[in-house]
Amino acid sequence: MTGERPGSLFEGKVVLVTGAARGQGRAHAVRFAEEGADVIAYDLCDQLDSVAYPMATPEDLEETARLVEKTGRRILAERGDVRDRDRLSEVLAKGVDAFGRLDFVLANAGILPAAGDKGRDIAAFTDAIGVMLNGVYFTIDAALPALLRNPEGGAVVITSSAAGFTSVSTEFGTMNHGAAGYTAAKHGVVGLMRHFARSLAEKNIRVNSVHPGGVATPMVLNQAMADWVGEHPSFSAAQQPLLQLPMMEPRDVSDAMVYLCGPAGRYVTGVALPLDAGQTLK
Questions:
Q1: pLDDT by residue (tens digit) across 67-83?
Q2: Whole-prediction pTM value?
Q3: CATH number, domain containing residue 263
Q4: Which CDD domains match (predicted)?
Q5: What is the Cα–Cα distance from 129 to 121, expressed in whole angstroms?
Q6: What's the total number of domains in the chain?
Q7: How many angstroms separate the Cα of 54 from the Cα of each of 21, 92, 275?
């Protein structure tokens, strides 16, 4: 990053962010815009029946767009499901037509359908796999034609989780379809990351995954999750980090995204990067 003026790290670059309406996705979109990138923002902005907490709304996506535009950068903010590859391709084509290129893909969209009665429905498993495994694959696959047109390559970062190294379920009482689906999906995307990292290296496209512990987002900080955690003390104990730090904020994850996509991370590919303050070392 040496020699780069503030806000110029990604000047002239374009990033796709899925799950961009709030939480980590919004933080990534704004941070990349602050570094000079134009943004293609994609989010469902609707409720899935298997998810017990309120999901993002169209108004949330509008706020992301407002915050990006406030930086002086351009944004194309579109609603869509990451399980719908055709819609992803449609939005990407629209974004590339508007901005001229695609450099970075942040496959961030996620759900946590483990809480309450809904977590015990088989749809919680299929939705988790659909959004966080199939959806990641569809996102990268739909973005590849534009990425491959860049002679200098690009970068893909998949949002996994500390649950990509361990399990959401910590005891028999926490074993449900949603916890199984979340754990399986977050493990599964490590395999996708390694598949793409090896396959795309000759095209100078780097592919990595990040594995945050608990992050202060609406996916974690909501009544349904608070009730579930309160019912299962073993789950809460398993989330405790080793480092004595406050709960991670979304922009802390954005720092890692900037590193992995920027010149400082140009030698990094095929890495599953823990961002959990030592949580998974226990």
A1: 999 999 999 999 999 99
A2: 0.93
A3: 3.40.50.720
A4: SDR_c
A5: 14
A6: 1
A7: 13, 27, 25
